[in-house]
Recover the amino acids of this structure.
């Protein structure tokens, strides 16, 4: 403990000397510049030489007090930085002594300045600047290593170190800081030490130096090469903090992964209608074979592909399989995901983790990107396994433990590295199954996305179930994987849905009582024309029920159904074409607004667009950094 305190005290002396050394470089350069201000700079140099001499003596005294034989390796680095700093300061003082600064009267400063320029060359000043910057960098790296080493010691030893530093500070502080104040703060061992190292009588100067030093140490923490993915380097997990603080820091790190729209997409996916999709866990029939999903979930096979046309219900099926049952399900069914009963047979008693992500083309940037995929999966996985957080984010965990802050933004490459690390670590003891929906809604290279997902499962026992439209890029990459084409198996589900919607409407019931044969044929025709596309059915049933509400005759309903295009995109086009021309201009404004926005526009922005004379214009020009602006205010 005594050696640690001596090393940190020595580091504080080094910071003081380098501070004065850097000021000397700045002042010397001002003297070298031509102009009347050089006289004032030379006067400042006289005062600076006295301060430099004083702190150099303190540094030398601190060096003499250190027992180098008992220092840790990182603390020896601090001692080496102190020796180099002491040598640099002494060289400055030796040169300044030759000028006789202390005996130079004000009237002869101009001559002394000329002598200074003869004694100091511009290259000397530049070399001195580089030398002091190198000392600061060396000190920062060794301080970061020392702080990590101290933080791995017991909490009692950490408190003892902080108590001693507090006492030293109080002995030299007119404000008399209480000696037990620092440990009580529990703000991070590193933060407290930095406060001691940056201590100055001038509070503003001390705060600035503390901020600079903290930033430099955080840079050293993040500058370390992270442990290899195939190794378990638990050094960061051994950083000693109280259990309550450890829990709070893990929560803080998890909250940095969270984003507001994380659960939006799965929340907007329709719940499967009663009695639909239950066939997914049955054995395949002979007439329409598919790869048995239930058996796949129980097997060691790793990748399953659900494909189907747009609107065929892929997302609804993925939600049906992977998400817990909501309230309103049969009371005898447990509130858990349906896939779990099958996955438990695969896990065979091992812990089981299920996580999912839904790409969404209509959502925000994170909902269409790899960054959103990484954040969402990491959040879900680490919420269940908070114990591995220090191993998954070693640099961030160290920054939090030492400084109580994590200022570095989460970059996509770090998120990918961390997700890969989490999966590799957990796969050794835990069975993991991932569900990723909407691969076709990813805003990027789809081939690259497939490669990413296949790399995740390569060399592990992790399972992934994916869903997408049957695009060529997916068919070529996944054609030999277990799969099913959804529209081939949803005839009965769609019939159940249509029957339920129709018979739940009083107008249809009246029609059925009058024209029951036509009503039954209408159900059958809707189901067959749907060709397995749930979304088409939903729109068409709503259209037919609307006609019944307005008293359409049987022949009218027949024409209405015949006139609706069987293709979903054609149906959307038909809906747009049927807009009242009176609203075309306003609808075009709304579409322009949506096209110009990188993120979905807010309700407030839509309300502004609904004004008779909105005070903004639409623009799709990119801002700096690549994001697009939604609107641009007009000058009033």
């Amino acid at each position: 403990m005594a050696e640690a305190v001596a090393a940190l005290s020595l580091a504080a002396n080094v910071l003081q000397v380098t501070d004065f050394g850097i000021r000397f470089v700045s002042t010397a350069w001002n003297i070298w510049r031509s102009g009347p201000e050089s006289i004032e700079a030379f006067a400042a140099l006289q005062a600076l030489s006295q301060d430099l001499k004083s702190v150099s003596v303190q540094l030398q005294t601190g060096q003499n007090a250190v027992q180098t034989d008992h220092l840790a390796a990182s603390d020896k680095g601090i001692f080496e930085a102190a020796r180099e700093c002491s040598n640099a300061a002494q060289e400055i003082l030796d040169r300044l002594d030759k000028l006789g600064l202390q005996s130079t009267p004000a009237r002869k400063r101009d001559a002394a300045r000329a002598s200074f320029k003869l004694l100091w060359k511009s290259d000397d000043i530049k070399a001195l600047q580089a030398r002091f910057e190198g000392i600061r960098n060396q000190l920062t790296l060794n301080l970061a290593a020392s702080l990590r080493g101290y933080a791995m010691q017991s909490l009692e030893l950490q408190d003892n170190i902080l108590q001693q530093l507090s006492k030293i500070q109080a002995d030299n502080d007119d404000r008399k800081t209480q000696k037990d104040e620092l440990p009580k703060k529990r703000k991070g061992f590193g933060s407290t030490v930095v406060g001691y190292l940056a201590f100055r009588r001038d509070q503003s100067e001390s705060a600035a130096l503390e901020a600079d030093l903290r930033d430099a140490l955080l840079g050293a923490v993040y500058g370390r090469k992270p442990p290899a993915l195939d190794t378990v380097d638990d050094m960061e997990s051994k950083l000693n903090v109280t259990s309550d603080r450890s829990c709070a820091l893990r929560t803080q790190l998890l909250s940095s992964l969270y984003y507001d729209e994380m659960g939006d997409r799965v929340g907007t996916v329709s719940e499967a209608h009663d009695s639909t999709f239950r066939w997914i866990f049955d054995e395949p029939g002979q007439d329409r074979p598919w790869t048995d999903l239930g058996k796949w979930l129980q097997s060691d096979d790793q990748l399953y592909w659900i494909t189907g046309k747009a609107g065929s219900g892929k997302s609804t099926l993925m939600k049906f399989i992977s998400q817990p049952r909501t309230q309103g399900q049969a009371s005898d069914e447990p509130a858990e995901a349906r896939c779990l009963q099958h996955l438990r047979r695969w896990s065979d008693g091992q812990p089981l983790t299920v996580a999912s992500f839904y790409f969404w083309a209509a959502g925000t940037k994170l909902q269409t990107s790899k960054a959103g995929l990484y954040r969402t999966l990491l959040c879900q996985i680490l919420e269940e396994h908070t114990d591995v957080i220090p191993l998954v984010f070693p640099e961030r965990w160290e920054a939090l433990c030492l400084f109580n802050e994590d200022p570095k933004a989460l970059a996509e490459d770090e998120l990918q590295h961390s997700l890969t690390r989490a999966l590799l670590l957990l796969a050794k003891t835990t069975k993991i199954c991932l569900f990723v929906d909407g691969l076709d809604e990813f805003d990027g290279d789809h081939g690259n996305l497939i490669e990413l997902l296949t790399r995740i499962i390569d060399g592990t026992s992790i399972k992934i179930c994916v869903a997408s439209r049957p695009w060529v890029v997916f068919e070529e990459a996944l054609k030999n994987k277990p799969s099913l084409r959804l529209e081939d198996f949803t005839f009965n589900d769609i019939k159940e849905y249509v029957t339920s919607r129709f018979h739940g409407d009083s107008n249809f019931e009246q029609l059925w009582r009058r024209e029951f044969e036509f009503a039954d044929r209408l159900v059958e025709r809707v189901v067959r024309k749907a060709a397995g596309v749930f979304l088409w059915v939903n729109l068409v049933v709503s259209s037919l029920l609307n006609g019944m509400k307005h008293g359409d005759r049987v022949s009218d309903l027949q024409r209405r159904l015949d006139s609706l295009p069987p293709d979903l995109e054609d149906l959307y086009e038909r809906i747009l074409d049927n807009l009242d021309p009176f609203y075309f201009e306003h609808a075009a404004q709304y579409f322009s607004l949506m096209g110009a926005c990188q993120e979905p526009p807010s309700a407030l922005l839509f309300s502004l667009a609904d004004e008779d004379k909105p005070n903004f214009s639409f623009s799709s020009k990119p801002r700096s950094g690549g994001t697009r602006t939604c609107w641009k205010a007009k000058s009033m």
Q: What stands out?
A: The CA atoms of residues 163 and 373 lie 46 Å apart.
